[in-house]
Amino acid sequence: MKEKPSVNLNEDVLLYSKECITEYEVVKAQREWADGIVRIGKVYTDGGDYKTEAAEFIQEMYGYDLGSVLFKPTLASVSQFRNSFDSAKSYFVGDNPAYPEDSGFAIKPYTNVKWENVGIINNNCRMAIAMGNYYFTPKDGNGDVKVEYTFAYVKDKSGKIRIASHQSSLPYVPPKE
């Protein structure tokens, strides 16, 4: 009988944590995401380097360096799927000729983002999924913009929650009769 080769499980090469994701961690990541969107807009309004701010935000919050990220942002219709870092950055700050429809979602700017989770599923331990509505308060304060979302989260090997899937859309508006 042949002996099976041993497998060296060097944890340094793992991209993801072995630890489960908690509901608290998801809610904390949502707050960090919201704060990041507001921060990008403030840096833009203050005349700062909002593109670098957005790049750091994406690197911190999304798992593009871990593998595939499925990103379907709200205000995109021509190139509606953003599966690369550069396409995500274009959505948030615009100014990318490859994505002419992008005007810079995060530089509107917004003063607040409020999350309203319908539910968070984390029963498979390695990924958590949250779904609900989030509300963006524009700088002029003229009413919140309601957006529907589904986010999937993973935990990287350092224990940081990262977005692996992000889908958002404006609510359906039935035709007027």
Overview of the molecule:
A 5-stranded mixed β-sheet has the order 1-5-4-3-2, with helices on one face. It is globular, with a radius of gyration of 18 Å. Helix 1 packs antiparallel against helix 2 and helix 2 crosses helix 3. Helix content is 25%, strand content 26%. With 177 residues, it is of the alpha+beta class. The longest helix has 23 residues. The mean pLDDT is 92. The chain is built from 3 helices and 5 strands; from the N terminus they run ααβαββββ. It has a single domain, classed as Nuclear Transport Factor 2, Chain: A.
SSE order and pairing:
Layout: H1 23-45, H2 50-61, E1 70-72, H3 85-93, E2 110-121, E3 128-138, E4 145-155, E5 161-169
Parallel strand pairs: 1-5
Antiparallel strand pairs: 2-3, 3-4, 4-5
Organism: Psychroflexus longus
Protein name: Phosphoribosyl-AMP cyclohydrolase
